[in-house]
Amino acid sequence: MLENLSMRLSFRLLRGWIYRQYPPLSRGMYRVKLAGYERRWGLERNGFTKEGFFQILRKQVLVKVKSGVFFELVCGDGRVGCMGPWLESLQVGWKVIAWEHRPYPLAELRKNRPKTETHGNRLTNWMEPQKKANPVGITSRGCRETSALCREIRKGHLRPSLLGIWNPSRRPIWYQRLRKEGYRLELVWYNMEFYWSERG
Question: What is the pLDDT of residue 9?
């Protein structure tokens, strides 16, 4: 019985690897590709909880990223699905800055995370203060914010090492744009696609 279970797990891992090789030629093929990234590094089993996911992210991706400034765009209440509290708890040089333009989630964000620097607007127009902050990582849960972020990366104004892009529609648009700029999809967790690239 244990042998059968082990074989099934091995087969699922192999299928996950095959899925990751799929070219994103259509929305359907891209969804299959994402399924492969949802199985990577045991995410399917060990990344079910937020804590389990963060441990995998830390071990497999964050080891390649130097601590520094981290931006969270469209942060919501600052807890659900957010990396900020976890990064701030690491106490190894992370500073998180959060943006939330909706009044009620902004009030919750400020209540839940009083020590986090927060802004009550959208970050779609990158000015010098944001560029000079030189964030090493950014998560974005808004289409406008992600579009503006991709534009700044394309223009060479930004080069974060880690990007987390919320993509509930599972269309390959962000994958295609970021791949052109040298970013590599690393893993997917609850519609959040995580990309990594060397800072250049």
Answer: 64
Structure tokens at 169: 């529609």
| pTM: predicted TM-score of the whole model, two decimal places | 0.91
Q: Helix/strand/coil (H, E, C) string of the chain? A: CHHHHHHHHHHHHHHHHHHHCCCCCCHHHHHHHHHHHHCHHHHHHHCCCHHHHHHHHHHHCHHHCCCCEEEEECCCCCCCCCCHHHHHHHCCCCEEEEECCCHHHHHHHHHHCCCCEEECCCCCCCCHHHHHHCCCEEEECCHHHHHHHHHHHHCCCCCCCEEEEECCCCCCHHHHHHHHCCCEEEEEECCEEEEECCCC
Question: Percent of the chain scored above 90 by pLDDT?
Answer: 57
Beta-bridge mates of residue 185: 195
Place of tokens 């082990």: 6
Model confidence pLDDT, tens digit, residues 124-134:
999 988 888 99
Residue-level pLDDT at 75: 93
CA distance 95 to 68: 6
